């Protein structure tokens, strides 16, 4: 189904996001009298195509009018004149009687359904739109008898897709009730805001005394006058009645205060406390989540293509910036130099740094987000930071961070990941998940599943290597087979390699970066600093922006073979994976033979024979059983073990026959 949205702000934009994500709409076409709103809506994926009213009427199967209520009637009449006979039109404004009267004489009246999804925030514009705004809320359909039965049914299906409960009501009744429960609360907030602003002219210190009660009461005063002035005008009769009742209560309070009637004041407050029954019911309803069957291994996680949330991306994606934000000058200069290279797509900086031991530098904190925001404004580039808890998420969103990532130490803790997922409910910001410290693929997948369960579809993984035992040339062993297996299970998941943390030194960065690209990784996360050797954290693994650009230029993007055998990216990727496994097998076999030589030395020192027949039979029997479970044939296992056994004998013989010095 092709859905048209007229008005791409908070309500229309949020509806578009969920209808597309949840499969109700195949495509969203948007129209808006503000060209900038259309540009933003398209750039952030709210709509897939922009048009005008004529185009919307011609192309769409269902149209949603989500504009201020004063212009909605004219738009509806325009659309009803143009649409096909089977097109359905809805409006979602918060006054219904006026709009129903405006279209009641139109020949296509039955194609229109008057709706009011009761949800929203004080924010406006397409940037305010987000997923799950309507989940577990109530939608009202008014004067359904005047609409075609199939049109009403389709409207109910739409709001069901938005996870809303629908009730039916007459338009006049709706407007009277909504005047008390919505319109009056906004007027109260506007009036309080005006009162305080007037006092503030004489008493600057009043804001030093303002607490959370004031903030929550006056929050609605930030609502758009473009939206609310027409609403109050259209519903003037019912709003006026609500104000009369409200003013009566205010005057009663004033009288008891003026006359010092403490008992009467107490009684009024005590009676007002009964509103808690309603508030508790609303809170309980908002907290209740429908039962969702736990995902099985066969369930497919919805993943938005990276091209949708990073339009115009030229592979490979490169995310770069300092390991830690240290000073404003350091962040700004590093980011500006990175932007100047033309090789970096996203700027990063560590704001909070989880350290293995206390008393080390643990990040500059929230002030660093202000520096990163300035870098974003100066360069026009997107930004990314690591978050480890709810507070980090809220602070990052407050400062306009574009991409979040979850670090290895956080991924290992399902409670922490769930806290982050809960904080992101309804906000489909891109989130990248680093592999856990230890080689646990299920923990990695579990973190991705938790974020998916919170409605995040812009997901990606970061491979930063795994904790090692013993000395190797890497800070964190790559263990390529694990990200390869993750990619096999989730083919659509973007995979980013973090060579900086795999290597722990700048000398190996190019090698690991090339290896990742050979395995068809989506991109790289590399740490860069204007003066790496003076960095406050992880100095050895950072490079200057200039060196980073040189390294990126030296990488080879492989799309296939250069000889006569033509292969597509999929086959090449599979072959690269096989090559990688073979390389790792040879490395493991070499390490095995080193242990074998130690065994040979032990046997030599203790005058034991090389061949221990009972041991060899036990190995064969155990390996046959294990191989069968792993899908390997008995014939292959026998040939493989015989070859390995013979090589082991050769190594032990060389040790045992080595002449004494």
Automatic annotation (TrEMBL):
Domain Prephenate/arogenate dehydrogenase positions: 1-287
Enzymatic class: isomerase
Any GO molecular function: prephenate dehydrogenase (NAD+) activity
Record InterPro entries: 6-PGluconate_DH-like_C_sf, Aldolase_TIM, Chorismate_II_sf, Class-I_DAHP_synthase, CM_dom_sf, CM_II_prokaryot, DAHP1/KDSA, NAD(P)-bd_dom_sf
EC number: 5.4.99.5
Record keywords: Oxidoreductase, Transferase
NCBIfam families per record: PRK08507.1 (NF006307)
Organism: Pontibacter aydingkolensis
Protein name as annotated: chorismate mutase
The UniProt record lists the keyword Oxidoreductase: yes
Residue ranges of every copy of the Chorismate mutase domain listed in the record: 565-656
PROSITE patterns: CHORISMATE_MUT_2, PDH_ADH
Pfam families linked: CM_2, DAHP_synth_1, PDH_C, PDH_N
């Amino acid at each position: 189904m092709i859905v048209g949205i007229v008005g791409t702000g908070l309500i229309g934009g949020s509806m578009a996001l969920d209808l597309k994500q949840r499969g109700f709409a195949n495509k969203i076409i948007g129209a808006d009298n503000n060209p900038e709103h259309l540009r933003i809506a398209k750039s952030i994926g709210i709509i897939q195509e922009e048009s005008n009213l004529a185009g919307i009427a011609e192309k769409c199967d269902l149209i949603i009018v989500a504009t201020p209520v004063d212009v909605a009637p004219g738009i509806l009449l325009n659309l009803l004149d143009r649409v096909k006979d089977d097109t359905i039109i809805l409006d979602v404004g918060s006054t219904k009687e006026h709009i129903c009267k405006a279209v009641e004489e139109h020949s296509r009246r039955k194609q229109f359904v008057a709706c009011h999804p009761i949800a929203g925030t004080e924010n406006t514009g397409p940037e305010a739109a987000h997923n799950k705004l309507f989940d577990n809320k109530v939608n009202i359909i008014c004067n359904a008898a005047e609409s075609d039965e199939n049109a009403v049914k389709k409207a109910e299906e739409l709001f069901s897709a938005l996870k809303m409960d629908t009730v039916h009501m007459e338009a006049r009744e709706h407007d009277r009730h909504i005047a008390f429960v919505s319109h009056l609360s906004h007027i109260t907030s506007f009036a309080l805001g005006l009162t305080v602003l007037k006092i503030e002219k004489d008493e600057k210190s009043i804001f030093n005394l303002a607490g959370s009660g004031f903030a929550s009461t006056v929050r609605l005063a930030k609502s758009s006058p473009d939206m609310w002035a027409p609403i109050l005008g259209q519903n003037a009769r019912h709003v006026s009645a609500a104000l009369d009742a409200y003013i009566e209560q205010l005057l009663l309070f004033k009288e008891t205060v003026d006359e010092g009637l403490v008992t009467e004041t107490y009684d009024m407050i005590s009676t007002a406390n009964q509103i808690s029954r309603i508030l508790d019911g609303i809170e309980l309803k908002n907290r209740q989540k429908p039962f969702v069957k736990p995902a099985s291994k066969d369930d497919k996680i919805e993943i938005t293509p990276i091209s949708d949330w990073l339009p115009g991306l030229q592979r490979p994606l490169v995310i770069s910036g300092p390991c830690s934000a240290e000073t404003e000058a350091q962040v700004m200069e590093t980011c500006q130099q990175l932007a100047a290279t033309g090789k970096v797509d996203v700027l990063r900086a560590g704001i909070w740094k989880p350290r293995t031991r206390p008393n080390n530098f643990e990040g500059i904190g929230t002030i660093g987000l202000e520096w990163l925001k300035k870098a974003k404004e100066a360069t026009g580039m997107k930004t990314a930071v690591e978050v480890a808890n709810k507070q980090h998420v809220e602070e990052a969103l407050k400062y306009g961070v574009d991409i979040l990532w979850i670090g290895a130490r956080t991924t290992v803790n399902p409670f922490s990941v769930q806290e982050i997922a809960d904080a992101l409910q309804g906000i489909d910001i891109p989130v990248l998940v680093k592999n856990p410290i230890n080689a646990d693929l299920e923990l990695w997948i579990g973190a991705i599943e938790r974020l998916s369960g919170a409605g995040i579809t812009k997901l990606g993984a970061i491979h930063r290597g795994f904790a090692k035992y013993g000395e190797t040339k890497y800070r964190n062993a790559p263990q390529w087979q694990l990200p390869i297996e993750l990619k096999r299970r989730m083919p659509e998941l973007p995979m980013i390699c973090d060579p900086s943390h795999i290597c722990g030194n700048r000398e190996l960065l190019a090698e690991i970066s090339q290896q990742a690209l050979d395995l068809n990784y989506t991109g790289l996360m590399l740490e860069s600093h204007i003066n790496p050797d003076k960095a406050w954290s992880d100095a050895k693994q950072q490079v200057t922006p200039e060196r980073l650009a040189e390294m990126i230029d030296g990488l080879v993007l492989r799309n296939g073979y250069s000889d006569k055998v033509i292969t597509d990216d999929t086959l090449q990727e599979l072959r690269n994976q096989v090559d990688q496994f073979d390389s790792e097998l040879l490395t493991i076999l070499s390490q095995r033979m080193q242990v074998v030589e130690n065994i040979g030395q032990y046997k030599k020192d203790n005058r034991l024979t090389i061949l221990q027949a009972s041991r060899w039979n036990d190995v064969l029997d155990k390996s046959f059983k294990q191989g069968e479970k792993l899908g390997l044939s008995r014939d292959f296992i026998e040939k493989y073990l015989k070859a390995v056994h013979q090589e082991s004998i050769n190594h032990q013989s060389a040790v045992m026959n080595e002449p004494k010095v």
